[in-house]
Write a structure and sequence with these properties.
By secondary structure, this protein is of the alpha+beta class. The protein has one domain (about 10-95): Arc Repressor Mutant, subunit A (Orthogonal Bundle), CATH 1.10.10.10. It is built from five helices and three strands; from the N terminus they run ααβααββα. α3 (about 45-50) packs across α4. It is globular, with a radius of gyration of 13 Å. The relative contact order is 0.20.
Length: about 100
């Protein structure tokens, strides 16, 4: 595989993860950040902001995490998410448009 190229299966997984308005809203929120939290947010904060249930938000974040688009970190009882510093190229391109 040449540098900068990704396998078709990986490309498909990334594009499927991005092809959902709720997940795009999550990415927009994480991209925006608020200065205070440095572009990261808990599942509960994300759910409240995009007006979705905790369970549904958690499922969407799991899909984004499986596609290496977001990173997660557990702190005590809460899970925090942020955009991955090593975003796949297709994800970086889409997020730049948000």
């Amino acid at each position: 595989m040449a540098e900068g190229k990704i396998a078709e299966k990986d490309f498909e997984r990334i594009m499927k993860a991005l092809a959902n308005r709720r997940r795009l809203a999550i990415l927009r929120l994480l991209k925006r950040g608020d200065g205070r939290k440095g572009g990261e947010a808990s599942v509960g904060d994300i759910a409240e902001e995009i007006r979705l249930s905790f369970k549904a938000t958690s499922k969407h974040l799991g899909i984004l995490s499986a596609a290496d688009i977001v990173d997660r970190e557990q702190r005590s009882l809460q899970m925090f998410y942020r955009l991955s510093p090593d975003l796949p190229v297709p994800a970086r391109a889409v997020i730049s448009l948000l």
